[in-house]
Amino acid sequence: MKITLFVLSFTLLCVAQAPVFAQDDVVREGAVHGWNLGPTGLGGSMFCDKMVTTDAREIFITKVAKGSPGDGHFLVGDSILGAAGKSFSFDPRTEFGKAVTTAESEAGEGKLILTRERDGKTQDVVIQIPVLGSYSDTAPYGCPKSKRLLEQGCKALAVRMADPAYGKDF
Predict the structure, then answer these.
(1) What is the predicted pLDDT for the residue at 75?
(2) pTM for the structure as a whole
(3) Considering the domain boundaries, does residue 163 fall inside one?
(4) Number of folded domains in the chain?
């Protein structure tokens, strides 16, 4: 889990009012942070106060990458209300990260269970993510999973940076 929370590098838009999203929430001016939800291929936002998200209880989906594990399960505008069969009760980033870590293990078989809300209805959906194994007791040092995550992250970044459009939107 030590690296998963780092590698997930969630992207976040902070809202100014309540911890639960509603259609009329106002995005705090200048608070655009790109939280992506790691191996799911989803992007999201959640309530935060000065980048602290402990009061949030849902992740609002703002992006679904075509062909990703989340594609076909989530739409922009859906919300994730929980993971691993339980509603978020603390910081969704922490609870989501723990669920990803479990799903990536051999025992988890790559099955990430997320509670989706769409049009006022909730449903547990299973997203199949890659099995990367478990972290060693010494993670990130001498840990095969940490090494795989670092290598995959570097490859993905190199591909993005090779795109002529990279950095043009800043």
Answers:
(1) 97
(2) 0.75
(3) no
(4) 1
